[in-house]
Specification:
This protein is α/β, with parallel strands linked by helices. It has helices spanning 7-10, 22-36, 65-72, 75-100, 115-134, 180-191, 220-231, 249-262, 310-321, 346-355, 384-388, 408-413; strands at residues 44-45, 142-149, 156-163, 209-214, 240-246, 271-277, 298-302, 334-340, 357-358, 370-381, 395-405. The radius of gyration is 24 Å and the shape is elongated.
Length: 414
């Protein structure tokens, strides 16, 4: 059974803070970080086996999301955390003065030369968390900085996103928060742009590249793609249009705010990113708006299948928006989809493979149809480096689908 200790239980008693080691205080700050300013759950792909650390206080962090949310929204627990952080900072200032004057020592590691550095690090972390607990995060608003890099270290893309509280009366507002699937897809794109038709532009710089994101939510994927293209020399002079779409009013407003925060002024004349409303359910019957009047070369979707009808609606959108295979000199268009395999949404996830046929099951001489070109399973640590490495054994599974038009050239080259 999962257990999550509240701050009043987990944190060292305020009156005895001075008696705890640097290691224990850093552990307490990491706990508060995971509680009030957490990483996105399931956003770190597994590359090597996570280290297992035995026993200790960290087992107290095992939990489910509902349990976490209850404690995070508890005003008394947040107030206690603020008082604890305030007391810690005050004690650290006293310790620093004592250390400089030759008095008390915090050397629990046996390395006196590291004492001041450790104390300063704790002060900075505590002050940052105090601002978070007492500031906008108290209202359920969280701002995170995301950093993605290529494996060879030559590319680095940063984006700042704000999550806003979900509307409890409308399940459609889930896009107000950043989900792990978007993080996974963004990381994959930066690491291997060629896999997503964003590599070498193959001598077609005169032709505009049109990119669309369905269910963009907070906008992470669209923002990362736009910033990534700024780092690729092959796109220096090529026009690119990125269109990020969503449906729910509060989600769309937050999406626009995140785009403005990352691109405060007009972007370059050759690359643009815009945000627009898109209702999948009525796309095939409603008049086509101007911003969707052309076809798209690349379409992205992350964590957007959570209702039984979503896959059908998305297929209808793709039929009208994904560029069809007419020009054999142009790279084939594709839809890149990442979805989590949640036990609570097993049926919804399965609809992808019932709505879209596998490439091998399609008659290559028949009419073009949307097919699953490739499928890849991805495993992530549920709680990042800290919580995922504590022996909890919790993983998040994703599936990455590449979907495109069925035709011989496409299937052979892919």
């Amino acid at each position: 059974m999962s257990v999550l200790c509240p701050p009043t239980t987990y944190l060292p008693p305020i009156a005895k803070i001075a008696s705890f080691s640097v290691t224990r205080l850093l552990d307490a700050l990491t706990y508060l970080q995971s509680l009030y300013h957490p990483e996105v759950r399931g956003s770190r792909r597994k590359r090597v086996q996570a280290p297992v650390i035995d026993g200790g206080q960290n087992l107290c962090l095992r939990h489910d999301d509902n349990e976490l949310q209850v404690i995070r929204s508890d005003a008394f627990e947040r107030s206690y955390s603020i008082r604890w952080l305030t007391a810690l900072i005050a004690q650290l200032e006293v310790w620093q003065d004592s250390t400089y004057s030759g008095g008390a020592s915090l050397d629990d590691l046996g390395k006196p030369g590291l004492i001041c550095a450790h104390v300063e690090m704790i002060v900075q972390q505590a002050a940052s968390l105090l601002a978070i607990c007492a500031g906008v995060a108290a209202a359920g608003i969280i701002t995170r900085n995301f950093v993605f890099g290529s494996i060879d270290g030559r590319r680095r893309v940063e984006a700042q996103l704000t999550d806003i509280p979900l509307d409890n009366d409308d399940y459609g507002s889930v896009g107000a928060q950043t989900w792990g699937g978007a993080c996974v897809l963004a990381e994959m794109i930066v690491e291997n742009p060629e896999q997503f038709e964003l590599g070498l532009s193959s001598g077609l710089e005169s032709r505009r590249l049109n990119i669309l994101e369905l269910g963009a939510g907070t906008g992470l994927v669209s923002l990362v793609v736009t910033k990534l293209l700024d780092t690729l020399p092959s796109f220096d002079h090529r026009e690119v249009s990125v269109v990020a779409t969503d449906f729910h009013p509060s989600v769309l407003a937050n999406l626009r705010s995140n785009v403005s925060a990352n691109f405060p002024s007009t972007h370059t004349s050759t690359r643009s990113i815009t945000t627009h409303f898109l209702d999948w359910s009525s796309f095939s019957t409603a008049p086509r708006p101007d911003y969707l009047a052309y076809s798209f070369d690349v379409i992205f979707g992350a964590d957007i299948i959570y209702e039984p009808q979503h896959a059908v609606w998305i297929r209808d959108c793709l039929k009208g928006l994904l560029r069809r295979p007419s020009d054999m000199t142009v790279s084939p268009a594709a839809f890149h989809l990442v979805i989590p395999l949640r036990s609570t949404h097993a049926f919804e996830s399965s609809t992808v493979e019932s709505v879209f046929l596998k490439a091998c099951d399609v008659d290559p001489n028949g009419d073009a149809d949307l097919v699953i070109v490739s499928k890849e399973s991805i495993t992530c640590d549920a709680y990042g480096d800290y919580m995922g490495g504590q022996g909890l054994g919790e993983d998040v599974e994703y599936v990455y689908y590449k979907i495109g038009w069925s035709n011989a050239r496409y299937l052979v080259e892919s």
